[in-house]
Amino acid sequence: EANMMNLSRSVALISLFLLPLLSFSFSVDNPTDRRVLVLLDDLSLKSSHSIFFSTLKSRGFDLDFKLADDSKLALQRYGQYLYDGLIIFAPSTERFGGALDSKSIADFVDSGRDLILSADTSASDLIRGIALECGVDFDEDSSAMVIDHSSFSLSDGDHTLIAADDLVKSDVILGKTKIEAPVLFRGVAHSLNPTNNLVLKVLSASPSAYSANPSSKLSSPPQLTGSAISLVSVMQARNNARVVISGSLQLFSDRLFRSGVQKAGSPNKYEKSGNEQFATELSKWVFHERGHLKAGSLVHHRVGETDEPAIYRIKDDLEFSVEILEWSGRSWEPYVADDLQVQFYMMSPYVLKTLSTDKKGMFHTSFKVPDVYGVFQFKVEYEKLGYTTLSLSKQIPVRPYRHNEYERFIPTAYPYYGACFTTMAGFFVFSFVYLYHK
């Protein structure tokens, strides 16, 4: 009896210990990441970047700060991931501690979880390798920085503090409130892999920018120049995991958050840079607080019916619908769009229809089954900038008419029916005349 009581107490204690972890866990009904591991190469970054971390905490994130070389680092235990998101603010780290390495981080993203990676001029080969896995290639010259003699902050002397305002035009990624002030950037340039169509520039350099060592004269033309330079990029993987890669760790710092800015050649002077708004809105996107869609099951039936049939007949009139909701950060809201389409597909789409919406999350249409029988699919493939990708399908066979389902007299065959009876009447008249008339 005493053993049973001790066992029940142990189970209760374990449940109490696991309860807060489970409440922060990632789920389909609550897609916002809550448990985030923050890797730092210096714990002083907790205070120098405190505003950025505070905005995450205020939105309900549970941040676990650890040094990048901590010997107890691990992303998963017993096959279960301990975190839903990862922030790496450790650009100079040559090797992670514990069980963490570049492969485990790639597996972390492959599992559908999210990553923020920030580099600077001290970026190690490890950090560069992780970025390369995501389709981002930092400048090979470790001493190079982004320099711009036209789009720099007037408070800067060597023109390496860039005042960038070439932002991606997407309300989903950067929010509906326009970022008025330029974003201050001091760091390294990177380019995007042209064969990777999943990666996207969200903050680009101006056409006058280039990547070089600011303390030495140019001996040869720089490899990265102009708008080919990306300052901050994002990637959304095919499994809808999201990654942010920044070439500047200072971009997230309190100093640049609070710093005033006046761009060279512009009369506008701002008391506060656009860094805080930019970083906050970008973090909302990467952690699925915005632009996350979910779809219900595909529903179809014949016109006038409600039950879903096991098979359709050619030329049947059918109705199709699907419910799509968008996560607002706190709850699921109806998604409204006019560019959602459904395909009735067999080897190629026989029917392609744009879905109408009732603005309550339900998308619907109706069409006639084509005069081709076989195994078809209802397919909804939806890809839109900033939103998670939807890929839905449902299989349904289509049969021809049965022998007793054809019309007795086919209207298009009336000329043939008339020809037949006319021939019979003519033969009768000819026979009568031939037999009874001299």
TrEMBL record:
InterPro entries: DDOST_48_kDa_subunit (IPR005013), OST48_MD (IPR055459), OST48_N (IPR055457). Residues 1-27 form the signal peptide. It is a single-pass type I membrane protein. Pathway: Protein modification; protein glycosylation. It is found in: Endoplasmic reticulum membrane; Membrane. Residues 35-286 form the OST48 N-terminal domain. Component of the oligosaccharyltransferase (OST) complex. Residues 300-438 form the OST48 middle domain. Pfam families: OST48_MD, OST48_N. Belongs to the DDOST 48 kDa subunit family. The chain crosses the membrane at residues 414-436. Subunit of the oligosaccharyl transferase (OST) complex that catalyzes the initial transfer of a defined glycan (Glc(3)Man(9)GlcNAc(2) in eukaryotes) from the lipid carrier dolichol-pyrophosphate to an asparagine residue within an Asn-X-Ser/Thr consensus motif in nascent polypeptide chains, the first step in protein N-glycosylation. N-glycosylation occurs cotranslationally and the complex associates with the Sec61 complex at the channel-forming translocon complex that mediates protein translocation across the endoplasmic reticulum (ER). This is Dolichyl-diphosphooligosaccharide--protein glycosyltransferase 48 kDa subunit.
